[in-house]
Amino acid sequence: MAGRRRFAAGEMAVVGQALEVAEERVSDYYHLSASSWRRYPYEVRTRAQLTPPEVSRQALAQVLRLRRPPLAREWRSKDFYRICLQDHNLLGAVQREGQSELLLPLLVYVMAHELVHVVRFGRFQHLFEASEHERRREEALVHGLSKDILKPVRLPHLDRVLELYDAQAACNGGRAWC
Prior knowledge:
- The protein has one domain (2-68, 76-170).
- It is built from five helices and three strands, in the order H-E-E-E-H-H-H-H.
- The chain has helices spanning 9-30, 87-97, 103-122, 132-150, 158-171, and strands at residues 42-45, 61-68, 78-85.
- Strands 1-3-2 form a three-stranded mixed sheet, with helices on one face.
- Helix 1 (9-30) crosses helix 3 (103-122) and helix 3 (103-122) packs across helix 4 (132-150).
- The relative contact order is 0.16.
- The model has no long low-confidence stretch (mean pLDDT 88).
């Protein structure tokens, strides 16, 4: 069943590669060092690790804001972000296009897109709680930023992924996959 499809071991390796490329590009764009990411705490989970409320029927990924209880010697709890990859939707998109080689560029784009959200939320450039209209505008802005961030990346089929994303957004009134 499509909703239950999960990344296989080889695909999980591609997730790791994509995260590495995306984090490096987002770091370069926002001038973040490796230690700077502590100000923007996030984790990535795939379908196997998601709870039912974290699963989406249409999104390729989503970012959730969660609160971690205080650790030893801390006074306050801290917010962090969870990037929830929707394996079933990502694999379905690749399957619909009939090109398995689209998985890596698609994951690079999705990861970069979600990391841009994390940085923008962390810098209060956009509030996590927003109206539907504000979210749509933010999605368009983040898509444009993600495209700019990924311009230097020489990755086969990345242009095709961006074209598909643009077409999807046009069909859904500005709402795309992420």
